[in-house]
């Protein structure tokens, strides 16, 4: 009788242990605040990526995936505290996020302190996988250099002068620095740099300084805008008639809501991270079809990024045979996997995901509510000489 009771207890404990086995992931991101749209896309994409990679089971080798959401409200101090909470109190296996580069920079040391993976998506600043990087940081999102090099390819040429308008924080500053580096040897110079607060809505003074710096230059003149969130700088500057000085506005890609305001820029060229109609591959086909069915819209800029992160998480855990951090690092360095953008590869030197970008030209169709980034050409991993900046 005693043996049967003990055996029953052992069996029950084993079943309870098996039932409790789960993979815990924290999504630490700015759910509320000016980047709320980016955050929702990122989370939707992450969940769809986990779903796609697990064939709908949301399990890896029989272990259930549990995603814990934490809202940074775009405050660096919150990002740091919430990541500490996730690694410590919640005992997550790894974390994904955040939206803001400033928040990401505050979170990087926490990953190193707890010796756990932080998969950065979609924060962009070069310094995340550059001077502030540590070995526990991987990034699926593009970095400032990938934006910069692809846009330099799209915009540069002999006797071209470019001014920049950017937000005065890590995203904007790193973006301009990388863009200037990418222009070296192209025959194009940066004629003026203008930085304004992230919440700027009146661009009159900044625009006047740009116009004054460029009005007497000979050759082709462009204003390259690096911007995230609201404020609508492109339309507001365009309303001041930069064309009277021969200045054309240019920018990288953006979310569909922003592209609604780009119909006044027909023919504008640049390079983008993603637009749902540009990549041609089975993963993107699934994402476009499923997102349209579930949400009534095509997937957006950061939906693709979130999905790439979810796919990377599952691929890494499968390859590592579990969630041990050192095994994950070994598995992820040099790891290739398929995403809505096609192949991505984690570069071993800085854990930045190498990926395609897309040179576009804006087309306006009255039957489509946003401006369409029409493909000029895909810029492959091999086309983009992205510097390693963590040395």
Automatic annotation (TrEMBL):
It holds the Pfam family Peripla_BP_6. CDD domains: PBP1_SBP-like. Transmembrane segments: none annotated. Residues 1-21 form the signal peptide. SUPFAM superfamilies: Periplasmic binding protein-like I. Residues 22-363 form the Leucine-binding protein domain. Keywords: Amino-acid transport, Signal, Transport. InterPro entries: BCAA_transport, Leu-bd, Peripla_BP_I. GO terms for biological process: amino acid transport. Belongs to the leucine-binding protein family. PANTHER family: LEUCINE-SPECIFIC-BINDING PROTEIN, PERIPLASMIC BINDING PROTEIN OF ABC TRANSPORTER FOR NATURAL AMINO ACIDS. This is ABC transporter permease.
